[in-house]
Amino acid sequence: MFHDIKKIGNVYFVLVALTFVVLDGFHSIDALAASTANVLNGQTMGTMYRVKVNAIKPIDTGQLKKEIDDHLELINQSMSPYLADSEISRFNALTQIDQRLRVSPDFWNVMLTAKRIYQLTDGTWDGTAAPLVNLWGFGPKKKAARVPSQKTIRALLPTIGFDLIDMEKGRWLGKKKQNVTLDLSSIAKGYAVDRVAQLLKEKGFENYLVDIGGEVFAAGHRLDGHPWRVGINRPQRQAPLDAVYQIVSLSGKALATSGDYRNYFKSGGRFYGHILDPRSGYPVNNGVVSVSILANTCVFADGLATGVMVMGVEKGLDLVEHLDQVECLIVTQGSDGRLRDHFSKGFIAERPH
User: 211, 276, 325, 341 - which has most CB atoms within 10 Å?
Assistant: First the structure.
């Protein structure tokens, strides 16, 4: 079942933290089409992927999977901070502010989206925030759960800020401060979804669903003619990993969700989640437990979901309502443990039966 794969993805995320961020799981509930659709499964970016293609004529699934894997490997080779020779690692290794690195079109495209999200959210999403993530123990090398000192947090803040990255014509990147580092993990997975979807479109497929670690893009419809149906996890710490909270019909859109209820620690009677406000250096504490974004591209939905989660309900909804073809569902949890939904005007979902 699809949710088993997503369940693995969620557990992997909890264990590996922010290797490539799996902020929340999705699972397909189109059981009517599952027995006859072309389904390709694999691994990438520390999580699982699943591609479902509905085609009238038989397709060479082995060849298609190879092409998908090749695309994903190129993206991983470009943006993985775990590979010493990746583009992002080579950028982070720059030691002088007058040094420049020319990056690939894929990397540049992600940077353009990253810059836009950073500006739209007033810095609540920031691709330079990895030092803070590591400080709080949510990075790839897990540390003992503890609250860092205010002094330590403040010492890092001058190195945080996407505007400390120079982006120059010709796909050249540089630093305005020597110790600034990039980590695009929180949107690279969404970009990978978009690239696979683009590959399928270029091959002439019209009906398909691409899911990489819970970030989803769907085109066309299922074999029964209905839109693809994607479940959003129930955003509560005690909920089963495969518990469905809302169901979204998806066609020609991407859906990404951010949440802080799977990766956290408790100290002094308070829960500290892995979603940080890069401006203050502290985990968000605004009552928001989950944000789902519908958008034309998964890379944009991926980053915006995190940014809106930090912004909170009022500012987050206001931002989304001013963006064309973007919708959101923000879920808050009160002190009584009850969940409350906050929809943008065009977000349509249904509760599972």
Answer: 211
pTM above 0.85, yes or no: yes
- Domain 1-353, CATH class in plain words: alpha beta
Task: Give residue-wise pLDDT tens across range 11-66.
Answer: 222 322 222 222 233 444 443 344 357 999 999 998 999 999 998 888 999 999 99
CA 264 vs CA 100, 137, 179, 187: distances in Å: 37, 9, 27, 20
pLDDT tens digits for range 64-117 = 999 999 999 999 999 999 899 999 999 999 999 999 999 999 999 999 999 999
Q: Which of 176, 65, 133 is nearest to 273 (CA)?
A: 133
The full length of the chain comes to: 353
Using a 10 angstrom Cβ sphere, with 0-12 exposed, 13-18 middle and 19 or more buried, the burial of residue 24 is buried
- CA-based diameter of the chain, in Å? 63
Q: pLDDT tens, 208-239? A: 999 999 999 999 999 888 999 999 999 999 89
Hey, where are the domains in the chain?
Answer: 1-353
Contact criterion met (CB below 8 Å) for 27 and 242? yes
Name every residue whose Cβ is closer than 8 Å to that of residue 221 and which is 6 or more positions away in sequence: 54, 207, 227, 228, 251
Q: Residue 144 to residues 20, 264, 267, 273, 315: CA-CA distances in angstroms?
A: 21, 12, 11, 14, 34
286: exposed, middle or buried (Cβ count in 10 Å: 0-12, 13-18, 19+):
middle
